[in-house]
Amino acid sequence: MPPRPPENLSPLRELLRQAAPAMAAMASYTAMQFVDARMVAELGPRELAAQGNGGIAAWFAVSTTVGVLFAVNTFVAQNLGANRPERCAAYAWTALWMGLIAWLVMLPYAAALGPVFAWMHAGLADPTLIRLETDYARITLAGALFTLWARALGQFFYGVHRPIVVLASAVAANLLNVFLNYALIFGHFGAPALGVHGAALGTVLAGVLEFAIPMALFLSPRFNADYHTRRAWRWSGEKVRDILRIGWPGGVQTGNEMFCWWLFMAWLVGSFGAAHNAAGWIGLRWMTVGFMPAFGLSQAVTAVVGRQIGRGDHDAANHRAWLGVRVAMVYMGAWAAVMVVFRAPMTDFFVAGDASPETRAEVVRVGSAILVCCAVFQLFDALGIVLMGALRGAGDTVWPGVVTMILSWTLILALGYAFIRFAPQLGGIGPWIAATAYIVALGLAMCGRWMGGRWRTIRLVEPSSGPAEPTPNAAPDPAPAPGPA
User: Is 319:403 a contact under the CB 8 Å cutoff?
Assistant: First the structure.
């Protein structure tokens, strides 16, 4: 049998034990993105905008599949909680097969991106920007298979409460990525100076390592003994249906949200020129410092909530969810204060040293206002991110997906376009006000859904007839409450 978490952990220590590696892994991704963006920023605001626009175009396609594969965490965690560890590996293998199929579908999409970017920037007359962002997206998508496989295995390791594996692979890959980007962007260590293309190539090569590490551990004798990882490699239509049944709303939700953010950044904000587009990406880079660790915490909440529900303890699941919300709010609230106080130097950090005074002043002005918008929604973002993870752990995925689609199209895009049409004097700041309204509304919606308790009626995995798994909790859970304790 696989090892179980210690029984004497308090709820907070149990959550942090699972969340700390996941949050650290997300922080590692954030640091990598920061270093990458800072390197590309030295090439100029056009190149920085191209990296951001091309990256989100690629991530839209990748994230749609990754959103579906989040369901692997749910099924693995609930089977672990129900004392059926032998079923866990089959979901991981199924996710690998699904990732391969999804990648093959992405290749024609990559080929069609040139005309899409040309349409988005029809009013700018900047063919260099279009070429750079198209090339960046195509290179990234060419190597996306390893990203999909790494994320699939990551959901397995989160589900079996081994997030340290995800952390180790992420840190190793991100360190390699920074080294490769430094060499390939600027032409160091005998490598050619490829600029934006080098940044994309470095990310792809690092993704191979990010997949190789968890795959080696997944097939190791230890994990094979605990989870039969070498026996369940065959395609399973039943597992595909399971993952799609629970995961399709997450895939639609994540893909739709990334699509809306892509249009938001490249089309709405980008319509005001490279300086505003670059300022938007600077704001988003700093924003990730807040939400990426919270997203790691959300992954942990999915696993912990799923495991408690697999044991049949819905009250403990409710307690863990609100505990995660409190942890996220403390962190993201502090980060909001930092963004307000240091907004100008934080924006200036990403402006190239040889930028003209006029360009620097414009980027800092717009970027500083965007950081204030980001600070306003931090607590609501914490609420939405964590409770969405809790709902996923319970198998409640359709409602969050539908609500996210409605809010993203009405607030990010429709309201964002309204600001461009009726308040053009705000420039790129106007759409960011609309994005703030979206994140506030989404956080409140997820809170209302969790408090409504519909998730308590969902059953994905029947409890095992064997002895119940011990609860890793020394303190009694509080009485069930409709809101935060």
Answer: no
**Residue 372 structure tokens:** 């204030």
Q: Is residue 117 part of a domain?
A: yes
Nearest to 93 by CA among 213, 222, 239, 249: 239
53 CB burial (10 A radius; 0-12, 13-18, 19+): buried
The predicted model scores a pTM of 0.78
Q: SS3 of 481, please? A: coil
Range with lowest mean pLDDT among 68-82, 149-163, 243-257, 467-481 = 467-481
d(CA 43, CA 47) in angstroms, rounded, equals 6
Quote the pLDDT of residue 19.
Answer: 85
b (16+ CB within 10 A) / e for 71-109: bbbbbbbbbbbbbbbebbbbbbbbbbbbbeebbeebeeb
Handedness of CA 203, 384, 396, 228 (dihedral sign): positive
Contact 136, 51 (CB under 8 A): yes
Asked whether residue 204 is assigned to any structural domain, the reply reads yes
d(CA 385, CA 260): 17
Q: Assess if residue 463 is contained within a domain.
A: no
Residue indicated by tokens 């639609």: 252
Extract the tokens encoding 153: 């295995």
**Phi and psi based region of residue 306 (left: phi greater than 0; alpha: psi -120 to 50; beta: remaining):** alpha
Task: Judge contact between 166 and 158, C-beta under 8 A.
Answer: yes
* CA distance linking residue 391 with residue 314, whole number of Å: 12
429: burial class by Cβ within 10 Å (0-12, 13-18, 19+)?
buried
Would you say residue 187 lies in a domain? Answer: yes
> What tens digit of pLDDT does each residue of 370-400 get?
999 999 999 999 999 999 999 999 989 889 9
Amino acid at 65: T
Q: Rounded to whole angstroms, how far apart are CA atoms 408 and 414? A: 9
Residue keyed to tokens 């160091």 = 188
Cα 442–chain centre separation: 16
- Give the burial class of 462: count Cβ atoms within 10 A of its Cβ; 0-12 exposed, 13-18 middle, 19 or more buried: exposed
Kindly compute the dihedral angle of the four CA atoms of residues 260, 261, 265, 266, in this order, to the nearest 10 degrees. Answer: -50
Measured between alpha carbons, how far is 383 from 449 in angstroms, rounded to an integer? 12
Give how many domains the chain has, as a whole number: 1
For 51, the token pair is 């990296």
Tell me the C-alpha distance between 473 and 114, whole Å: 54
SS3 content of the chain, % helix, strand, coil (to 5): 80, 0, 20
Spatial contact of 102 and 148, defined as CB atoms under 8 Å apart: yes
Task: Report the alpha-carbon angle 382-76-384, nearest 5.
Answer: 15
Q: pLDDT tens digits, residue range 170-186?
A: 999 999 999 999 999 99
**Containing structural domain, residue 141:** 17-453
